[in-house]
Automatic annotation (TrEMBL):
This is ABC-2 type transport system ATP-binding protein. Belongs to the ABC transporter superfamily. Residues 303-328 are annotated as: Disordered. Residues 4-230 form the ABC transporter domain. InterPro entries: AAA+_ATPase, ABC_transporter-like_ATP-bd, DrrA1/2-like_C, P-loop_NTPase. It comes from the Archaea. One of its GO terms (molecular function) is ATP hydrolysis activity.
Length: 328
């Protein structure tokens, strides 16, 4: 059974096709990165998976349950970190956790969840309305973890976190994955997705343009990295048959070997040395993740702000599930 399975999932707002006929399968146990520039349709897709909004056409199942007709079964099994937490400002972090544990039927204690997300007890006793953005993100993540969900849906989870917080969040995702939880990780920041995800789907203007591993994306996009070698003399070079090498050129007196697989670097150098060619020096120029993002979306990733601003939604922001909200 797939953790997420969508068929022609579509959401249209007037003339805007926010999500355009997505067919996507996320296997159980995988960490799947859902990547796309701002406005690509990531949050809209997630909102349809959790029945916060209804598709215009198409359907989806989550953990084998119909996303529209078996919503309770879905929400009971899914932990959600929404883009823009719907918390109760005057209620404490601790109270939010108690509520999340109670409504998810969890057996953990609030303190255990606080530990996992790096929030201390003192902060947990303050009203969440006083929290910084990073603290809000942490308490929301803790709520999402309550009840040991089978699927974690994280919408821009690093939003508001500092570099240490981002690393801790990635570690949490790895821990969850190691314990068998499927993780659906949405972000517009490729580096964060690639750090934790087994596969990545790239969404652009509502369309799922590709689904692959990061390595597969590199190869398919044909944006390899380059090995620049300074060699003695002007030898004839034949690197045909070296796995991962996609081309050999000369530039400014150097030999430039293009490759899509990092293991090709050492193999190419060995081949040259075996052929009696003197390798005086070498350096590598790696294709960046930004190059990759740009190749698929036409969006200059460097110019995409690290924004956590979501487009509007049909419904008010949702509290982290398995939660309906944490009343006072
Ligand atoms: N309620 C709505 N009414 C009209 N248009 C909407 C509504 N909600 C979303 N949209 C539009 O749908 C498109 C997809 O928005 P969505 O929020 O899903 O993108 P996103 O990929 O999550 O973006 P971000 O990374 O900025 O959060 C955008 O063009 C957005 O303006």
């Amino acid at each position: 059974m797939a953790a997420i399975d969508t068929t022609n999932l579509t959401k249209q707002y007037g003339d805007v096709v926010a999500v355009d006929g997505i067919d996507l399968i996320v296997e159980e146990g995988e960490v799947f990165g859902f990547l796309g520039p701002n406005g690509a349709g990531k949050t809209t897709t997630i909102d349809m998976l959790l029945d916060f909004i209804r598709p215009t056409t198409g359907s989806a199942t989550v953990l084998g349950y119909d996303a529209q007709t078996e919503t309770d079964a879905v929400r009971d099994r899914v932990g959600i970190l929404p883009d823009g937490a719907g918390l109760y400002d005057r209620s404490t972090g601790y109270r939010h956790l108690e509520f999340a544990i109670e409504s998810s039927g969890g057996t953990e204690t609030p303190d255990e969840l606080l530990d996992r997300v790096g929030l201390d007890r003192e902060d947990a006793e303050r009203p969440v309305g006083d929290y910084s953005k990073g603290m809000t993100q942490r308490i929301t993540m803790a709520m999402a973890l309550a009840g040991d969900p089978d699927l974690l849906v994280l919408d821009e989870p690093s939003s508001g976190l500092d570099p240490i917080g981002i690393r801790e969040m990635q570690e949490l995702v790895r821990e969850e994955a190691a314990s068998g939880t499927t993780v659906f990780f949405s972000s517009h920041i490729l580096g964060q997705v690639s750090a934790v995800c087994d596969r990545v789907g790239i969404l652009d203007e509502g369309e799922l343009v590709t689904v692959d591993t990061i390595q597969g994306l590199r190869e398919a996009a044909g944006i390899g990295s380059r090995l620049v070698l300074e060699v003695g003399g002007d030898p004839t070079v034949d690197l045909s048959g070296v796995d991962g090498v996609t081309g050999v050129d000369r530039a400014d007196g150097s030999l430039v070997v293009s490759y899509t697989d990092a293991s090709a670097k050492a193999a190419a150098i060995h081949r040259l040395v075996d052929a009696g060619i003197e390798v005086l020096d070498f350096s590598t120029e790696e294709a960046t993740l930004e190059d990759l993002f740009e190749a698929y979306t036409g969006t200059d990733a460097a110019a995409v702000p690290d924004s956590d601003t979501a487009a509007g939604s049909e419904t008010p922001p949702q509290a982290a599930a398995n939660v309906g909200g944490a009343g006072e």
